[in-house]
Write a structure and sequence with these properties.
Helix content is 44%, strand content 11%. By secondary structure, the protein is mainly alpha-helical. The protein folds into 2 domains: 315 residues, no CATH class; 176 residues, 2-Layer Sandwich (Alpha-Beta Plaits), CATH 3.30.70.
Length: 544
Amino acid sequence: MWRNRLKLLRVAAALVFFAGLTAALADFRNLVPAAAGHWFAGTQLVPSLIALATGASLALAGIIIIVATLAAGRIYCSAICPLGILQDVVARLAAWLRRGNQRLLPFARPKTWLRQLFLWGTVGGVLAGWSGFTLSLVDPYSNFGRVVSGLFRPLLTLANNAVVGAAHAIGIDGGLYRVEPTWAGMSALGLPVIFLVLITVLVALRGRLYCNTLCPVGTLLGLFARRAAFRLSIDQGACNKCGACLQVCKSQCIDLRAGMMDFSRCVACYNCIGACEHGGIGYRFAWRWTSGRKAAAPVSPPRPVANLEAPDPQRRAFLVGTVVAVTASLGAAPRMPAQDRDSRQQPGRDTVEGDDGAASGAICPPGAGSVDRFLDRCTACHLCVSACPTRVLKPAFLEYGLGGLMMPRLDYSTAFCNYDCRRCGEVCPDGAIRLLDLADKQLTQIGETHLDVEKCIVKTKGTDCAACSEHCPTKAVSTVPYGNNLRLPEFKRELCIGCGACEYACPVRPEKAIIVTGRRRHGRAQKLVEKRATAPAPTGDFPF
């Protein structure tokens, strides 16, 4: 019975994490609290390690995952990682399409060179200063986030609108309302679509091949799992080589002929334990202690247990290479806080010396500090894109350059940054968007406004407008007399924070008269000082 309980516990944990992360990333009505989205995203390995390494927060999830892996194997891959759980869902659907016919996945030797290639490529990208871009491509959580946010969320929005239309047609309200679907551009949807197709094909053909060959996170955790204290292994005395375990193993890590199991590739799904009716597979303590020169003699001869522990030059090379790769990546971690210190603004200054007034092709969210800092830390999980109430955050294509592919940017052609909102900072799990105090956020200059008076409809059509001044939350836009009882907009740049409200409100088409460009390094605006009205001096006469 205990053998089945392990699988039930794993399935229960997987449902909780998968449902929580999917709800946060697919939330099109902002029903999921920001704290819940932040917590679920903070349980993921890569965002947690980034936050811990950069000092953004005391994120312990990454350490807990590594300790758990050292204790009992790659529990993260089947119970916490949403991409791993998504692969299990796809496998279930594939089995259903095969009408329940089991697909036998025999043992396959590990592709050591390919695993090292992806791991070393990741380390090389981090060391080359492309940490955010590199990790965004390989982090399983971030890839899952882009698939759900970019593909599933718009589809759910369309389904919601269909239900709302049908409900209203028969006179049912129930708090239902339509939501305008927000699709990313085709250029931004390309990577999620390609990745989803890749995952689907690999799962249908080879199970968890992606997790054990292409995913550097799986390779890293496999290094720790290979030396775990408790490991799944085959008891050759109980195993009759019936092959039941092969029918349910999704990692192709069980070699029945040799009576061995490659625990570095096992994703701890526990399917094999439940499938074996003879108790031939189970957790067994694998660490051994010695006293002096001789090992302590066992009280009774143990049952023969086999695992992939025999000397193997290929595995030894893989182990050494992985240790060097991990050491190199950990050595690269301290550079992130140093860069953050360099990008921090000095008191009383708008920008850091040497970068005054530098413009950016895209506008990054308030709390990012600077474009360079943002691209160094953000893994483009798109949780902030899903959580943004005004939907102003969109995936970038080449607006940041190649290194900012898929990173969130503010698109003022469709919305603006809400003056009283900090939701992107509340949900960000890795500290790429810091949670600012609301007063600080309302003075953070993320962009600069440019007015082309020749395009303003006050001048081109001779009619009053004032849409920009009416929508400006900081009073950076005022109007001055112009022509025959008209008023032209005028900007006070020291008060402007670049929120985009004026650009969004500008009615000029197709090219707006007001354009906001991003600041490479965020500055600080001045706070508006309201002038108090003074009462007229008494003259002794009646005021009328």
